[in-house]
Each structure stands twice: as C-alpha cells, then as structure tokens.
Amino acid sequence: MHRFAIVIPIVAAALVVVSPAVYAQECLSSTAVSEVFSIQDTGICGSSASASGDFRVATMPPNGDPCNETTETAALPIQIDTVWSPGSIRRHPQGQQVTLPDLPLSAVFGDRFYIEAADRSSGIGVIDHLGGTPGWHLTVTGTLATVDGEVVLTDPAVEVGALGVPPVPLTMRPYAAFHGADPTGLLVRTFGSATQVQDAWFLLSDGGKETLTALPESLPAPIPGEFVILQGVPGMANIDGQITRVIRLTAQEYPQ
Questions:
Q1: CB-based contacts of 50: which residues, under 8 Å, 6+ apart?
Q2: Total domains, the chain
Q3: What pLDDT shows up at residue 86?
Q4: To 5 degrees, how large is the angle CA 119–CA 122–CA 127?
Q5: Which of 49, 59, 134, 215 has its CA 20 to 30 Å from the CA of residue 164?
Q6: What pLDDT was estimated at residue 84?
C-alpha cells in the first residue's frame, strides 16, 4: 500500500488540500503510479468533483488504464475546495497563487489591507500599500505566505470594482480571539480595560485570563485602566521578538 501527500489542481478555483477526514482510492498497476488521473466521490474511476467536500483520488498507472483489477485503496486525507474563500485558502499550500473575487475592503493599514467574505465568515490580510475606502469591492490575486505567524496574500494584483456598504464589525470579547472560531482577518468590535500601555501597543482585558494586544496604529494610546471600545482586525504580529495575537485598530471609543 502506498501512502503519499499530494496537491492536485482540478479546475479553475479548485484544489485538493490536506484534511484529516477521508480515504483515497489509488488505481495502481504492478509498477509505480505516475500522475493523478481524476478526482471522484463515487468510487468510479474517471468521474470528477464539481463541488467542495471530501473525496477520493484515482491515479493513472503507467500502463494508461485508470481503473484495472489491481486497484487498491489507501489512506490519503484530501479535501476538494472548489469555492475559495478567505478562510478556506488558509489551508492551501504556502506559495500557491490564489484569486479571491469581488470581496469588500474592510480595513487599511500602513503595510497591508484586509478583505472579508460578504457573510463575515472569514477574512484575510493582503501585504500591500493600498489607499482606499472600506466598502470597495476588490478582486485580489496573490501568493499565500505566512508573515509573523499570520497567513496572508503577498505580491498581489488588485482589481477595484464597485463601492458598496462597508463591512459591519462583529462584536466579540477579547477572550474570543483565543477560543472558538478564528476571527483572524475579520473586522470586529471589542471592549475592555487598557493595561500595560506602551508606545506601540497596549493590552486589552475583559477580566479573563487572556489579554489581547492592541496596536493603535495612528490612534492615540488610552490611559492605563481606562475602559475602551475598540474596532479593528485580529491577526498576528511580532511584538518585541515574540509572535503575538493582536488586533490592529481602525477606531476606538471612550464611553463615559
């Protein structure tokens, strides 16, 4: 039985990525398998995937017969991703070029900007100096990379579409940045008390065990102990040599 890791382009905007869920079918001959033949979900060699989900893979043996009596089944965890989103592409291989079409711009910072899904299910950062107003719909083609612990798109080509309504932030506690669904790349609204205020960052606490590191960017830093309501995008950053979960701020309020 052969076991191997594999990444398989299927059609435009479709890719197999690692997922610990399913089995794969290998159509083998007595000699080594050459290349992938097709993706299937029925066990019939030659059928192809038309939707996202977990599938099996059929491979083309050197004799050219995609399905013969020597077909074996081997464990190969794969997943077909036919509809790319900011969340799903984070599972794709580093260095892969992807395109995310017609997504709203949610936030702009000095070295990057963020786009997110229309349903606010996921977002992603794009390393580029972009001037723009949140709400513009962008089609972004870029290369997947990890920068300071955060999966982002680099070397982007950006197409600007229509101006729409700016994304509405999701409200969450600082605790949620560390537990549950990953909010990385999404515009959020959070709150708590400012502690350990430094020149470039401060900690936000809601009384729980975890504190979220806030990066004010160009906003004024709060007074230590002050209660603040923050709007921004969670992600990762290198803070004093340590990779840290952060929120990059776009706005802050000081309720009376």
A1: 82
A2: 3
A3: 93
A4: 125
A5: 215
A6: 79
